[in-house]
Every structure is written in structure tokens, then in C-alpha cells.
Design goal:
Layout lengths: L1 E4 L5 E7 L4 E7 L17 H12 L14 E7 L12 E7 L11 E7 L8 H6 L2 E7 L14 H11 L21 E6 L5 E2 L3 E9 L4 E8 L2 E6 L5 E7 L3 E11 L4 E10 L21
Parallel strand pairs: 9-15
Antiparallel strand pairs: 1-2, 2-3, 4-5, 6-7, 8-10, 10-13, 11-12, 11-14, 14-15
Length: 290
């Protein structure tokens, strides 16, 4: 048995079946006005009627579950989007007519190549140079088959819903990166962003990509320049000593066309990367009057 109620309590229903009979009951006002609160849910409105009808019918019809037809099979599917099971998402069992069952994970799951420079969709240059990372997103795309004015109202509604979601997986970038083959791409490989390090000797590794020769590379720690090279340097491997604390590390490079690029990370040395020193507000101490 399954019940249902409209959001504004204008009608409700109950439907259920046995091996021998199926019954559906709808309850509502003919003028579409809101229902009496006492019978406004499927459990209190349609269900009692459904129960009495079903109890009477079962004196004449067979009870029990239906026999599964030979051309129907049970399959474990992704409970969220309905395709084959997807790692990290719950599953459920569903019945399918043979030949209609899903053959792959739902197409809404997308693994996109994202520019490390600006968070947009990586362009061809960035993909060839390896200056991208793959991220998982859920992208809903729907067609409005009833539209006669060119507007896709289904997609507009989906996009409006997705915009309200807090989970980043619903916010796939739509713009493609404008980085050109004259650009400089910098990617810090070590340490990882937001990493907590247990050693004061911090090894910084970065990869620099440019179609032009590199003329200058610099490392900054908390806005202070601590290392510089005036050469065509495409790989950085430098170890520096940092005291306990939190740091922002930036690697910046320039090519011979005066284009530049940079990459930054935040880390903690023997502290969490976002550690903050607690400060207390000074209070006045009464001075005794002699």
C-alpha cells in the first residue's frame, strides 16, 4: 500500500494490491478547495476507505503477492539516479521487463576535466599540458518537448533547483577556460593543499607549463619572496625550513612573452592549515583606592 498527499492538502490518495485485486482511492473536493485537516493526509483520508473496500473484496478475491512474470527480473540499481550501482551512493532493488533494465550508471554522473588555473572546464591546451584535474559532478540535462517558444522550462527548473544545493557536485562549471598557448600554467604537486606537515623541512615541488621559454620563477611564503630563478625552469624541487605555524605558499612564473601564472596552497606545519591563535580581549582591573 502507498499513500500520497498534495503539498497544499487539496487531495490525497491510497493505492495497494494483492495477488487478486488492485484498489486505488482518491479523496478531494470537486472545487479543488483545501480539505478538512482531519482527513487531509492519505493516512486519514483515503486509507480508511481503501481499507474497507479491500477488506470486502478479499472475501471474493485472492490475497497474497503477485507471481513474478517470466519476462520480469529483479536488479540492484543506484537508488539515487536509477542506473547501475554507483560507488558511494545507496542501492535498491527494482523490477524490470527483460531488455529494459539499465546497462550502465546513470548518465547524469559526469567526470569533468577542470582547469587548475581558474576552475573552469579545461581547454585543449590545458589538457595537453596536464594542467587540469578530474572532478566528479552530477549534471542534469532535460528537454522540454512541449515548448513552442524555444524556452526549455524543464532545464530552467532543474538549474534553479541545482543552484540552491550546497553540495559542490551540483555546480559543474559551464564556461571553458580562456588560457591560451601563450599562457603559463603552474601546478604545485607537493605539499597538498590544506595538508598538515609533521616536519619543519618542507619540500616544495611544482610543474610549470608554457609553450614559450620561462624566464623567471619565484616562490613566496606568506607574501614574502624566499626563492627566485632567472632561467627556463619547468620543474621546481626546493626544500625550505619553516617554523611551526600556518602558511600560504605561492609559486609564480613568467615566460618570455611576459605572460605569468601562479599556483597557491595553504598548509600547516605541525598545526592544522586553518589553525588560529585564540586571543583574549583585555579587561580593566579595578585599582583599589587607598
Amino acid at each position: 500500500m502507498k499513500t500520497g498527499t498534495t503539498n497544499d492538502k487539496r487531495d490525497n490518495w491510497t493505492v495497494g494490491y494483492t495477488k487478486g485485486v488492485t484498489v486505488g482511492v482518491w479523496v478531494g473536493n470537486n472545487d479543488n478547495s483545501k480539505m478538512n485537516p482531519k482527513i487531509a493526509s492519505g493516512a486519514t483520508g483515503a486509507s480508511p476507505i481503501w481499507y474497507e473496500i479491500m477488506r470486502n473484496l478479499l472475501t471474493r478475491y485472492q490475497d497474497g503477492l503477485m507471481d513474478k512474470p517470466d519476462n520480469v527480473e529483479a536488479l540492484t540499481i543506484d537508488a539515487y539516479l536509477g542506473g547501475l550501482p554507483k560507488g558511494g551512493y545507496p542501492n535498491r532493488s527494482e523490477y524490470f521487463i527483460k531488455g529494459s533494465e539499465p546497462k550502465d550508471v546513470a548518465s547524469y554522473y559526469k567526470k569533468l576535466k577542470i582547469s587548475k588555473s581558474n576552475g573552469k572546464l579545461a581547454n585543449e591546451f590545458e589538457i595537453k599540458s596536464g594542467n587540469f584535474e578530474e572532478k566528479d559532478f552530477i549534471v542534469f540535462q532535460e528537454n522540454d518537448l512541449l515548448s513552442n517558444d524555444g524556452k526549455n522550462r524543464w532545464q530552467e527548473a532543474v538549474d534553479s533547483w541545482a543552484a540552491e544545493q550546497k553540495d559542490d557536485k551540483y555546480h559543474a562549471p559551464k564556461e571553458t577556460s580562456d588560457a591560451s598557448n601563450e599562457s603559463v600554467m603552474v601546478s604545485i604537486k607537493n605539499p597538498s593543499d590544506h595538508q598538515k606537515l609533521d616536519d619543519n623541512n618542507v619540500n616544495i615541488k611544482a610543474k610549470i607549463t608554457s609553450m614559450e621559454k620561462i624566464k623567471n620563477v619565484k616562490i613566496y611564503v606568506n607574501n614574502n619572496e624566499i626563492k627566485s630563478w632567472n632561467e627556463d625552469k619547468k620543474d621546481v624541487d626546493e626544500t625550505i625550513n619553516l617554523s611551526d605555524g600556518t602558511y600560504e605558499i605561492v609559486v609564480k612564473a613568467w615566460n618570455e612573452k611576459d605572460k605569468n601564472g601562479e599556483s597557491s596552497i595553504k598548509i600547516g606545519v605541525k598545526k592544522e592549515w586553518d589553525y588560529q591563535v585564540l586571543t583574549t580581549t583585555p579587561t580593566e582591573t579595578p585599582v583599589p583606592i587607598p
